[in-house]
Write a sequence for this structure.
């Protein structure tokens, strides 16, 4: 149920959930909504907005070259030192760090080949579904 009360230059609209106040000024119109005691915090899409923390960036070249910066999660202690290459396993140096290999270069007997093939088929099917009107 909506009720309008016009009082000179102020128009008040009553509704179940809110009260709409409109003032009629000569130069500009302003509208305000009274929330009848609901939350006064500024809310985002998910919940209350939280300010982002600015993390310090390490600029010391000696520390960057000799330690894994950011590996220490505790308040006290130090970051993990980088060891010589001989102390790491051999398979670590053969990992692909660039772009993924194309499907033609993968072995058809490998699990990665079939996963990539399935992913490509799912993307192709979803693209076809988007083209259909109904």
């Amino acid at each position: 149920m909506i009720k309008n009360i016009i009082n000179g230059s102020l128009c008040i609209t009553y509704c179940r959930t809110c009260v709409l106040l409109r003032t009629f000024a000569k130069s500009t119109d302003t509208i305000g909504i009274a929330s009848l005691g609901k939350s006064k915090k500024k809310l985002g899409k998910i919940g209350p907005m939280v300010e982002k923390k600015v993390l310090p960036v390490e600029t010391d070249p000696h520390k960057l070259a000799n330690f894994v910066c950011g590996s220490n999660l505790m308040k006290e202690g130090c970051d993990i030192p980088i060891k010589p290459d001989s102390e790491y396993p051999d398979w670590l140096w053969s990992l692909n760090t660039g772009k993924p290999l194309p499907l033609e270069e993968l072995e058809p007997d490998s699990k990665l080949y079939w996963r990539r093939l399935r992913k490509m088929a799912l993307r192709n099917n979803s693209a076809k579904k988007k083209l259909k009107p109904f």
Summary: The radius of gyration is 31 Å. The first strand starts at residue 3 and ends at 7. The longest helix spans residues 111-131. Confidence is low (pLDDT under 50) at residues 1-21, 23-32.
